């Protein structure tokens, strides 16, 4: 991370929400343009692996609601406009959670003008929030700007949602300041974007297109879907498909004397909706001893990390892994490896 910060700095780019120590990570960035001072704060609600160790060492700012609200209140008197960049939300879902909506309301009330979300890999709605006599805009997720996801999407043979990870939008915000009054966020414009991913001359070419400037059938289809997503008017069937749970079938691994670490635990075979082959999950460390179902077990799923744990289910699953290749997402809340069957999924 520190190497990335160095490269960004060498190109005149400012980092947000991360730093060489905690103070730098949590410090706001303030830019002055055309007589306006715009302040920025950044935080993440999710870590693949939280490596924050010492406040004097490299740090990524975690999203702690009360702490962030207070930071917004402190920054507000120093700037004309205030923007938050938040890594939050549930992967591949087209709507924010109630928790996100409540936090957005609190942040707008504290002084935020614009909240920009990311993490779900798909677009989520743009909403204007009014709270405490203030008005602010929240784009809950801008989707992927450029990625290799959904590269096999074929609009002629697949449902629309199979290409959602290639939808995106460019955001343009306008503040107006009329002397001697304060500045205000007057407009937010979103331009639909699409990641073109095709083979040309034997090489794969990935590029971002302004989908509104294209005239082909695919462009028209994606533009309609992007607009429907941003306006929160996707068909109910689409939302239900995105929320469809994966099917989990436990299978017992045959005993292998050469690998005692594998003895006694169960494999989870995950078959996401639309996938031809199931994906395997296995714990990185031995399961608890027989009769000792407690403890926490790290889980690795195709390069992403989560935690399996005993106990009550979290009210909003925030740990899990993306099952690539099938368009499904697994959010594991509870698994008992010592029990004869899975529970709490």
What does this structure look like?
The chain has 345 residues and is of the alpha+beta class. The protein has a domain at 245-330. The protein has six helices and 18 strands. The chain is globular and about 55 Å long.
How would you sum up this structure in a few lines?
By secondary structure, the chain is of the alpha+beta class. 17% of the residues lie in helices and 33% in strands.
How many DSSP-defined strands?
A: 18
Instruction: Tell me the number of helical segments per DSSP (H or I, 4 or more residues long).
Output: 6
Radius of gyration in whole Å, from Cα? 23 Å
Our measurement of the CA-to-CA distance between the termini, rounded to an integer number of angstroms, reads 34 Å
Helix fraction by DSSP (H/I, runs of at least 4): 10-25%
State the major sheet: 6 strands, mixed
Question: Can you tell me the residue ranges where pLDDT is under 50 for at least 5 consecutive residues?
Answer: 244-253, 255-345
Element pattern in H and E? HEHEEEHEHEEEEEEHHEEEEEEE
Q: Mean of residue pLDDT?
A: 77
User: Which oligomeric state applies?
Assistant: single chain
The neighbouring-strand order within the major sheet is: 2-3-5-6-8-7
Helix-and-strand structural type:
alpha+beta
Indicate the overall shape: globular
Proportion in β-strands: 25-35%
């Amino acid at each position: 991370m520190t190497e990335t910060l160095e490269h960004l700095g060498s190109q005149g780019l400012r980092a947000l929400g991360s730093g060489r120590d905690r103070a730098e990570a949590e410090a706001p960035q303030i830019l002055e343009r055309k007589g306006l001072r715009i302040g920025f704060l950044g935080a993440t609600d999710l870590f693949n692996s939280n490596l924050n160790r010492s406040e004097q060492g490299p740090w990524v700012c975690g999203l702690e609601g009360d702490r962030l609200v207070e930071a917004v209140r402190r920054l507000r008197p120093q700037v004309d406009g205030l923007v938050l960049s938040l890594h939050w939300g549930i992967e591949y879902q087209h709507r924010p959670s109630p928790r996100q909506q409540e936090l957005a309301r609190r942040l707008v009330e504290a002084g935020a003008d614009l909240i920009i979300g990311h993490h779900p890999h798909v677009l989520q709605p743009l909403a204007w929030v009014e709270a405490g006599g203030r008005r602010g805009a929240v784009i809950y997720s801008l989707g992927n700007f450029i990625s290799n996801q959904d590269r096999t999407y074929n609009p002629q043979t697949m449902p629309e949602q199979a290409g959602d990870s290639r939808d995106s939008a460019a955001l343009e915000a306008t503040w107006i300041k009329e002397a001697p009054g304060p500045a205000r966020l007057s407009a937010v414009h979103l331009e639909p974007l699409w990641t073109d991913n095709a083979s040309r001359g034997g090489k794969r070419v990935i590029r971002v297109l302004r989908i509104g400037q294209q005239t082909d059938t695919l462009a028209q289809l994606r533009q309609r879907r992007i607009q429907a997503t941003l306006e929160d008017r996707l068909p109910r069937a689409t939302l239900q498909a995105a929320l469809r749970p994966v099917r989990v079938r436990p299978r017992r691994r045959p005993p292998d004397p050469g690998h005692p670490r594998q003895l006694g635990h169960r494999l989870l075979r995950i078959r996401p909706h639309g996938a031809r082959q199931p994906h395997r999950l296995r714990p990185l460390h031995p399961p608890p001893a027989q009769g000792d179902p407690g403890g926490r077990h790290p889980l690795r799923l195709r390069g992403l990390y989560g935690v399996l744990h005993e106990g009550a289910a979290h009210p909003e699953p925030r740990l899990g892994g993306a099952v690539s290749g099938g368009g499904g997402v697994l959010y594991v809340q509870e698994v008992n490896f010592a029990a004869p069957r899975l529970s709490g999924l």
